[in-house]
Amino acid sequence: MSSNPFSTMKDLESLLPPKPQPSHGTMYPYWLQPIELDITPKFDGSYRTFNSFWQQFKPIHEAPYIPKAKKLALLIKSTVGEVREKLDRYDVVDELYDFIVDYLKREYGDPERAVNELYRMFNAVPHRGEPGNTLETMDTLQSILTQLEVRGENLQPMYHLFGMRLPTEIFRQLLKKKYPESMAELKIAAFEQYDFTIFLRRRFGSTSDDEPEDEPSNGSADFEKCLFCGKHPGRYECRTVPDVATRKAILADAGRCFHCFSSEHMARFCNDRPTCSKCGRRHHTFLCRA
Q: Where is this region: Disordered (predicted)?
């Protein structure tokens, strides 16, 4: 007969303390911690978003306890589109991880390419009066300009281009005040006006109480009604308001160009300067002092 008092393994286990069962809040050693990957959005090959993508992935990249093959699998999982197709061609092994990381940084991590992509996005924003230019265009402009600014870009050369893309609702309100003379001032004034306009829309269901709604946007066209008195067809010179200074004040209050009477731009941006039929100079006939 055996001298072993424990005839079976079951007898031995009965004397051991029970195994601890994981419960909510149980802390595991770092090498057993589950790896969470929540990169939003996944990287799609945009030069502009690579820096954001890499900052989110960097904690995994620098974690010493995660095998490189696992890092590579997580890296591939956090991409989409053409980038994902390229990375799927490689085996998921330790030896390829550093190569893939270097490739992504070299291919998509160039800051100059990111800036150029932002400028292309800005140039694609429709001008005021064009299809697609709405009040919500301000959100797109703010996003692009902010990203250019944090990358150290000088925005002053974009002054006129930015002004041309301001939605009509914002532009008209800025014209009623002293129009900003620098890009920094224009950017602040435009986005403050945008915030105020959104507030009015949400609070009262409108953005302005005096915006014309049915006037043609093309300043060179004949207006249905006189812009100065509203009593006769716009193609005829007004006799009710004969004073040129008063006419200019009315145009300024309505946010209209002094050259072509358009509500879509200021006189300094006008490309349609008419020749006066009275004196032959470059100004609108209705504003001639001759």
A: 1-21
